């Protein structure tokens, strides 16, 4: 009937909520049990293994081989001069004026590209975070530059900047930025701006997409609370929006800077590194060294130097981010 | 049949101890509640029983068989999650019958069992809906239905009521109690709410900082807490804790107040005294004098917060409406039979 | 007076929007304009906004008189293949990063980051040797493998973001219901990540579609070339045949732009849920 357990009446016959079905799985049936601990330990690596394998074979091993090239002399035009040369390539690098010029160019190329891309991308993201007529279509179209193959956009922009066949020099002259329509890419002082503009055009969608995503994840109540507290739009922006965006900004800036520093396609197609090496950045310099001069050893040394610099940059950014998070 | 035993179970994440020396025997059909503050390890313990976390040390047995290395699906245990964890892209019927789908049970059987469960839980009109179209209480029921259909050896509940509003919480608490009475299955329930613990449990396990503080029936814990933590955790409103000086035959409350405690053999080791708000009387002449600070009238009870010279804050609860006003001086008498003494280590000095 | 600030703001906003749109679309418009300009007018009417005579000859000759269609097909094969394989592998890796804490996690993430940092030029010679030693030169499959490796880190980042947006409880519940973790992934999580998968597919497709350097290095046989390489043939053969090149370019734009248009919404959506974690 019933039985009293701790002051409550418990019915021994279980009233069936549902009709019992014969159990097919009998728990505890003898089977070889590997430790659950081990199973759970190994699990993540199983999911990661294809990625790690592929990366290792296709990127890491060649990377190591590539680094080893920098310690060798591999000049295809000089096939008898091969063998290990230790740090000689690096010594050559240190005294190579063109390298330091390329480094300087790389810095400005990256700096201007990133600054404009980021600011304009942020502006676009802010705009897209509001409501307006035709937003869906607008959003789809305005992101298109990212989908365009880079050499195509390089060609098109080279075309646009060419005074003979393109409209831009004439418009710029009409507006007063240029004194007269001429090919800015023939001018060592201005040539860099051609690829930079193309890069900006290409890179805005990247920042717009990622920052828009981050913006949309900010809880609306924060802005309401700020409004009640009397914050102005600018204050809301600096004290709510920016701090929330900070992690995404850090990642995207770091990634994009690294990509841009390595990004020689636009420069190579638009200016070929000229005139007079004024647009030569480190990675295009590597390209010309490797495929024009066919000096793979030296090219590898330059590449290693670039890699080192970027790693320092990344570490610095991560350290900076840690410090900012504490504030 | 599900008798669950935990022998010297411990859990570490790297070098961090999360649970230590857990020894617990749960009888078949018992409703055990694991209760404690955030971070005490109760959810971790539940997940170890479920098999979602591996057990670092010790033995976990169901019906005498060691289950440490069995995957969750082989343990025949069902779990109701705090967030309900309903599959968003499946309707209610499919959510509830999912376990049968995995086992490749015949669809006709699946449909009939789902319908039965839906009827029991009052969900028959909702079987075609997606989770996002359900209210919190309805989702909770679906989660329970999903567990019931499994017909498991034991049910695990991980704070299932914390996402519900107060009124719904009471209603669902009753549902769970009724479910336990109907099914008679072993149930392990985790909550940080001691009211849920007291009302639902056959036995309560109080955890703090990875250690079991006490295991006992609700009444045990209420009347005979093993230490200060349990004493303050169980019972609402919270027990008053006063700093006292232990003497041979009682304790000194303040410079002028001495409380005689003849039933205790040795009160010398006492450093603190605990007395529940409902065990203090307002009298004409008593042990202490206090000034009423805030008075809360709940209709059924009156909560009086007082400041006592030399002792600090005290709370008294009385049935009905007591005509006391803030600022009034009141004489208080502590019911010496209901006093709890605690030593330096926080442990109870019971008779 | 009260209406003016918001009207001015509105006008400013739409002006800004128009500006962005014009900036984004103008080069593409120009590209297409050249494609439909007859050869003899390309230089003389270079700065005009609209050619005096339209012609589709360039398109016709590109499509029917060159190997462009073959190149296009090869590119399609490679890009779709890369997108599919990368998304699959990145889903596994992204899932691992999202759900598990394990020793070595930080190291693996750091390594993935480092792979983004060096110029691909550096490994082009070693990869050439590697591919040659497998006898896989001129094989489109070798391109797929190489491109997949390039894209895994960022695709993993994307997939991790998407997984972060799905509550962990769901797999736990499925495992209690009788699934192995893999079954839980397949039956419960997978349907929920479709937007994320789509977005990653689109992103990788776009990246693979326009890759030039390695295609140039690893493929020398004409019928195995992808279209970027094919486009270069317009440069080398005679003097640059601009009209044809831009026509080919316009055609080449279509798949990647279409793809990207469809998936960009999911990119934003999916990144949003994971964005808070940074």
Give the percentage of residues in beta strands of chain A.
Answer: under 5%
Estimated share of beta-strand residues of chain B? 25-35%
Helical stretch tally of chain B: 9
Share of helix of chain A, binned: 55-70%
Helix content of chain B: 10-25%
**Average pLDDT number of chain A:** 79
The largest sheet of chain A has its strands arranged as 1-2
The topology string of helices and strands of chain A comes to EEHEEHHHHHHHHHHH
End-to-end separation of chain B? 39 Å
State mean pLDDT of chain B (0 to 100 scale): 89
Number of strands of chain A: 4
Question: Which ranges of chain B are low-confidence, i.e. pLDDT below 50, for 5 or more consecutive residues?
Answer: none
pLDDT < 50 stretches of chain A: 1-31
Largest Cβ-defined interface: A-C, 93 and 92 residues
The largest beta-sheet of chain B arranges its strands as 6-7-8-3-9-10
Radius of gyration of chain B: 24 Å
- The gyration radius over C-alpha positions of chain A equals 30 Å
Oligomer: heterotrimer
Structure classification of chain B: alpha+beta
Please report the distance between the alpha carbons of the first and last residues of chain A. Answer: 67 Å
Instruction: Summarize the main sheet of chain A.
Output: 2 strands, antiparallel
């Amino acid at each position: 009937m019933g039985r009293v357990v701790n002051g409550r009446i418990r019915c021994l016959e279980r009233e069936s909520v549902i009709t019992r079905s014969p159990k097919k799985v009998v728990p505890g049936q003898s089977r070889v049990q590997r430790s659950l601990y081990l199973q759970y330990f190994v699990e993540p690596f199983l999911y990661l293994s294809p990625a790690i394998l592929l990366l290792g074979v296709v990127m890491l091993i060649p990377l190591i081989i590539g680094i080893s090239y920098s310690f060798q002399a591999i000049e295809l035009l000089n096939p008898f001069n091969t063998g290990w040369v230790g740090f000689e390539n690096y010594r050559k690098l240190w005294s190579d004026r063109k390298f330091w010029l390329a480094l300087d160019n790389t810095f400005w190329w990256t700096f201007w590209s990133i600054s404009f891309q980021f600011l304009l991308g942020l502006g676009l993201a802010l705009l897209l975070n509001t409501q307006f007529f035709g937003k869906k279509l607008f959003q789809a179209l305005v992101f298109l530059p990212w989908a365009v193959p880079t050499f195509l956009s390089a060609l098109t922009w080279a075309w646009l900047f060419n005074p003979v066949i393109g409209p831009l020099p004439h418009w710029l002259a009409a507006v007063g930025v240029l004194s007269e329509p001429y090919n800015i890419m023939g001018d060592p002082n201005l040539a860099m701006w051609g690829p930079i503009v193309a890069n900006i055009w290409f890179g805005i969608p990247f920042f717009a997409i990622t920052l828009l995503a981050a913006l949309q994840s900010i809880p609306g109540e924060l802005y309401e609370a700020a409004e009640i507290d009397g914050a102005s739009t600018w204050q809301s922006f600096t004290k709510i929006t920016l701090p929330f965006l900070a992690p995404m900004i850090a990642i995207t800036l770091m990634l994009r800077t690294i990509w841009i520093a390595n990004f020689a396609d636009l420069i190579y197609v638009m200016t070929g590194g000229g005139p007079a090496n004024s647009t030569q950045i480190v990675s295009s310099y590597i390209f010309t060294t490797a495929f024009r001069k066919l000096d793979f050893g030296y090219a590898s040394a330059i590449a290693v130097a670039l890699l080192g610099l970027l790693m320092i940059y990344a570490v610095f950014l991560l350290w900076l981010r840690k410090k900012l998070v504490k504030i | 049949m599900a008798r669950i035993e935990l022998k010297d179970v411990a859990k570490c994440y790297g070098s961090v101890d999360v649970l230590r020396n857990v020894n617990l025997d749960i009888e078949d059909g018992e409703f055990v509640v694991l209760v404690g503050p955030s971070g005490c390890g109760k959810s971790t313990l539940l997940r170890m029983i479920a098999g979602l976390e591996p057990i670092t040390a010790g033995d976990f047995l169901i019906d005498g068989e060691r289950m440490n290395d069995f995957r969750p699906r082989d343990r025949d245990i069902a779990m109701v999650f705090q967030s309900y964890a309903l599959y968003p892209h499946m309707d209610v019927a499919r959510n509830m019958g999912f376990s049968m789908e995995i086992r490749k049970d015949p669809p006709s059987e699946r449909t009939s069992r789902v319908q039965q469960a839906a009827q029991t839980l009052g969900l028959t009109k909702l079987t075609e809906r997606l989770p996002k179209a359900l209210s919190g209480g309805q989702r909770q029921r679906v989660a329970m239905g999903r567990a019931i259909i499994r017909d498991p050896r034991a049910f695990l509940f991980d704070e299932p009521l914390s996402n519900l509003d107060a009124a719904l919480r009471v209603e669902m608490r009753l549902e769970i109690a009724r479910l336990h009475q109907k099914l008679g299955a072993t149930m392990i329930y985790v909550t940080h709410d001691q009211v849920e613990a007291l009302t639902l449990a056959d036995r309560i396990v109080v955890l703090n900082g990875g250690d079991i503080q006490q295991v006992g029936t609700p009444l045990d814990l209420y009347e005979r807490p093993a230490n200060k933590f349990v004493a303050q955790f169980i019972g609402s409103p919270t027990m008053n804790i006063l700093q006292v000086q232990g003497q041979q035959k009682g304790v000194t409350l303040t410079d002028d107040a001495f409380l005689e405690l003849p039933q205790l053999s040795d009160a010398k080791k006492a450093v603190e005294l605990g007395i529940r708000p409902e065990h203090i009387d307002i009298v004409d002449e008593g042990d202490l004098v206090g000034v009423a600070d805030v008075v809360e009238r709940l209709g059924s009870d009156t909560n009086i917060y007082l400041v006592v010279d030399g002792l600090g804050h005290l709370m008294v609860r009385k049935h009905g409406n007591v005509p006391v006003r803030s600022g009034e001086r009141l004489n208080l008498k502590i019911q010496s039979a209901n006093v709890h003494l605690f030593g330096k280590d926080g442990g109870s000095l019971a008779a | 007076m009260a209406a003016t600030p918001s009207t001015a703001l509105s006008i400013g906003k739409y002006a800004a929007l128009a500006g962005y749109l014009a900036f984004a679309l103008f080069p593409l418009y120009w590209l297409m304009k050249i494609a439909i300009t007859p050869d003899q007018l390309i230089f003389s009417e270079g700065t005009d906004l609209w050619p005096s005579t339209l012609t589709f000859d360039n398109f016709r000759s590109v499509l029917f008189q060159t190997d462009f269609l073959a190149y296009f097909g090869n590119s399609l094969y490679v890009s779709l293949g890369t997108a599919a394989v990368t998304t699959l592998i990145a889903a596994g890796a992204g899932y691992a990063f999202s759900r598990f804490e394990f020793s070595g996690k930080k190291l693996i993430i750091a390594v993935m980051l480092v792979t983004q940092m060096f110029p691909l030029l550096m490994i082009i010679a070693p990869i050439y040797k590697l591919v040659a030693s497998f006898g896989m030169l001129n094989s489109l499959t070798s391109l797929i493998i190489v491109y997949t490796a390039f894209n895994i880190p960022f695709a993993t980042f994307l997939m991790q973001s998407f997984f972060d947006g799905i509550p962990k409880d769901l797999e736990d519940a499925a495992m209690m219901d009788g699934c192995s973790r893999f079954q839980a992934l397949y039956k419960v999580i997978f349907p929920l990540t479709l937007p994320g998968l789509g977005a990653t597919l689109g992103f990788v497709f776009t990246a693979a579609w326009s890759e030039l350097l390695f295609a140039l290095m690893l493929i020398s046989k004409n019928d195995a070339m992808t279209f970027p390489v094919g486009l270069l043939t317009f440069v080398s053969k005679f003097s640059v045949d601009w009209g044809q090149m831009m026509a080919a370019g316009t055609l080449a734009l279509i798949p990647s732009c279409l793809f990207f248009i469809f998936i960009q919404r999911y990119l934003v959506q999916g990144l949003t849920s994971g964005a808070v974690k940074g």
